[in-house]
Design brief:
Blueprint: H1 3-6, H2 10-14, H3 57-67, E1 74-77, H4 79-91, E2 98-101, H5 108-115, E3 119-122, H6 134-140, E4 145-151, H7 163-173, E5 178-182, E6 204-209, E7 222-225, H8 228-237, H9 245-254, H10 257-282, E8 289-290, E9 297-301, H11 305-314, E10 320-321, E11 331-335, H12 339-350
Length: 355
């Protein structure tokens, strides 16, 4: 049996998906119990009184073109979070299976696993540079580990994971587990996506999102890239109308070729701001270390994190306190903003004596 199926929960393999109302927009819709009038404030093209197209064909085509994969290898999701949840529901049996993650990393991997009643195996990144230890990861795998989550660039440490290390993991675990590579921040890294590897490693899955580089965090649009067999399993259990009409239309506008080119220019500009913010923080007496960043944020170690948080909050700025994680006892995460926002933050950490 194809490992994409054999690794999955048997009840998911056998489930009969919900049969949504037929999507034939050229016909008068009197089959889906929808209201026949549009609400007064409706400014959408399709109409909020009508159910949206499940897995909209136009959006799937644009996502496939953006990420360089066939359309049959794409599932549109409500951000990456929904893809994470779907994978956990497909592959994790409560009380039996586990995920493996390399901490510190994105918190939703373990949240989704715990909701599913599954275990979490931790393989820490190497503290000296947050690098992946591929041999240790593979040694930690057991047959109970069905999903291996790897985030590159990693959140919250901001660094790309080594390409050779990722290849080692994919080769060693091919057919044994679904290796899930989260590329939420890849556009900020200057590195190519691993999407071409989907042809090499059938049990590799890739997470992408329009939240970051395309400025659609509020629209909630992500994509699961994987072999058609895995996409087919996910389509069985995703809600039939997962993406709302305004979300679909916003995503299509953002993926217009002219809009994509505009986003690329804004990404380049923000990378310049990342360097500007880094230089400013390096001169602050409140900053001990700024880790290398391949993302749109900086991981900062501070011996006076409380003072930094108080000062930035007083100036109307929120930064992320990461100190609850054992590996990050002095760490803050700072998103790169506009020049005005960055200058305001730098003013907060440039005054006063060193702690």
């Amino acid at each position: 049996m194809n490992p994409l199926f054999s690794l999955a929960r048997p009840e998911i393999r056998d489930i009969k998906p919900y049969a949504h109302a037929a999507w034939l927009p050229e016909l008068t819709r009197m089959h889906a119990n929808e209201a026949p009038w549009r609400p007064t404030a409706d400014i959408t093209e399709a109409g909020l009184n009508r159910y949206p197209e499940p897995q909209p064909a136009a959006l799937i085509e644009r996502l496939a073109a953006l990420y360089g994969v066939p359309s049959s290898w794409v599932l549109a999701t409500r951000g990456s979070d929904e893809a994470i949840d779907l994978l956990c529901r497909i592959y994790l049996r409560a009380g039996q299976d586990s995920i493996l993650q390399c901490s510190p990393t994105f918190g939703m991997y373990q949240v989704a696993a715990r909701i599913q009643g599954a275990g979490v195996v931790e393989v820490p990144l190497l503290a000296r540079d947050w690098a992946l230890d591929p041999e240790r990861l593979v040694a930690a795998w057991t047959p109970a580990v069905k999903l291996v989550y790897l985030c590159s660039p990693n959140n919250p440490t901001a660094n790309l994971l080594d390409r050779a290390a990722l290849e080692f993991v994919c080769q060693a675990l091919e057919g044994k587990a679904i290796v899930v590579l989260d590329e939420a921040y890849i556009e900020w890294s200057g590195s190519e996506s691993f999407a071409p590897w989907l042809q090499r490693f059938p049990t590799l899955a890739i997470l992408r999102t329009l939240s970051k580089a395309h400025a659609l965090a509020g629209a909630r649009v992500g994509a699961l890239l994987a072999a058609p067999e895995l996409i087919g399993l996910a389509r069985k259990i995703i809600p039939p109308y997962a993406l709302a009409v305004p979300t679909i239309e916003s995503a299509l506008q953002a993926l217009d070729p002219a809009a994509v080119r505009a986003s690329q220019l804004k990404i380049s500009a923000l990378l310049g701001e990342r360097d500007y913010l880094r230089r400013g923080l390096e001169s602050s007496p409140w900053v001990e270390k700024i880790w290398r960043s391949d993302a749109n944020f900086l991981l900062v170690d501070s011996p006076a994190a409380d003072q930094v948080l108080q000062g930035t909050l007083a100036a109307g700025i929120l930064v992320r306190d990461l100190r609850s994680h054992p590996a990050l006892p002095r760490s803050l995460r700072i998103s790169v903003g506009t020049r005005e926002q960055n200058d305001t933050l730098l003013e907060c950490v440039s005054t006063g004596a060193a702690p």
